[in-house]
Amino acid sequence: MARIIKFEKNDCAPCAQVSAYLDNKGIAYETINPFDEPELAVKFKVRTVPTVIVVDNDEIKNRIIGFKPEELDQIAL
């Protein structure tokens, strides 16, 4: 089963937009602050926030950087 991970930081307006969008669509996701968990940021090669990653069996299936509603619609599982 695929899971969605959203990398964000506090006081990031685009991060809040992504959260609100996913919540509004009823899309479940995990939230990770890459500054609190740098090892996960390195593992998933996250360089900027917000970054949304779809992972299935430890393989990255999709990566969305920034607030892009048209791309976020594609990850609705």
UniProtKB/TrEMBL annotation:
It comes from the Bacteria. Residues 7-54 form the Glutaredoxin domain. Pfam families: Glutaredoxin (PF00462). SUPFAM superfamilies: Thioredoxin-like (SSF52833). This is Glutaredoxin domain-containing protein. It comes from Sphingobacterium kyonggiense. The lineage of its organism: Bacteria, Pseudomonadati, Bacteroidota, Sphingobacteriia, Sphingobacteriales.
